[in-house]
Amino acid sequence: MASIITVSGLTKSYASGHVALKHVDLEIEEGEIFALLGPNGAGKTTMISIICGNVNLSGGTVTVAGHDIVHDYRGSRSAIGLVPQELFTDAFERVIDTVTFSRGLFGKPRNDAFIEKVLRDLSLWDKRHSKILELSGGMKRRVMIAKALSHEPRVLFLDEPTAGVDVELRRDMWQLVRELRETGVTIILTTHYIEEAEEMADRVGVINKGELILVEEKTALMKKLGKKTLTIVLADPLDTVPAELAGWDVTLKADGQEIEYIFDTQAERTGVSSLLRTLGDLGIAYKDLNTQQSSLEDIFVSLVHREKAA
């Protein structure tokens, strides 16, 4: 699939000496949902701000839909819709007026039918005549998305799109993002909610201390780096872990009623069969077994901690 965004050797440094981005290379494919993960201060918002033309780069090149962000700013910016992390709205404007005005800023001809569709898709049509100051925080977030979509961009950036909204509204936004992708819009989101990336993303990038440390398809990442946890529910509780189980990294849980064993799914030998056989040899009966795959959050934390230790 063709790339709609190409980032090559991107760097950003400030007069203070702080280096926010260090030679970042990234290709984002048209029509995908790409999640950019990283702790606070990792460089997520800086990278988005540069691509969107709101912050100057220090080095490297970026193209959006074939337009260089420096030499063809208008072309690149017209292809982008941005929903920033902070809520910036004209508090005394009506919803429909501010969204219509945003479309005009990009030189798009008036299209009342399209604006109506955007507002309906975001459950804002009934609020179209309301002043923005009268809306809840979640509805204001929807207005920001409507403004970003008003000029029919090919790429939509969502910087912490569900920060501060309730669970129900978050689910609604996830559904909206999927529907946008189905129309061909490329979605790039930064998020602190790991389940958001796990739920929606096709690919995941992890950034830490200004460096892009990993870019991977979500399913491949979880398969490659994920571990499984085996929980053995015992018939009778144990006071301590028997010395014979020292060869396995096991811990007692639930007041001795459960043995937990974490293993690498990609290892040649997981150790599960030998562990269960040893329990049988010791006369330790169990009444249930269950396994759980590591979540994307577990993998993310592991990657960042590994990077810190390096």
Q: Quick summary of this structure?
A:
The protein has helices at 44-51, 73-78, 95-105, 112-121, 137-149, 167-182, 194-200, 218-225, 272-281, 296-309; strands at 3-13, 19-29, 33-37, 59-64, 67-68, 80-83, 155-159, 186-190, 203-208, 211-217, 227-234, 250-253, 258-264, 286-293. The chain is of the alpha/beta class.
How much helical structure, as a percent, in the residues?
25-40%
Give the number of domains: 2
Through-space gap between termini: 34 Å
Q: On the 0-100 scale, what is the average pLDDT? A: 87
Briefly note the CATH topology name of the largest domain. Rossmann fold
Contiguous helical run count: 10
Radius of gyration from the CA trace? 24 Å
Strand order of the largest sheet: 6-7-8-3-9-10
Overall body shape: elongated
Within CATH, the superfamily of the largest domain carries the name P-loop containing nucleotide triphosphate hydrolases
The CATH architecture of the largest domain can be given as 3-Layer(aba) Sandwich
Name of the CATH class of the largest domain: Alpha Beta
Query: What percent of residues are in strands?
Result: 25-35%
Structural class of the secondary structure composition? alpha/beta
- Uncertain spans: none
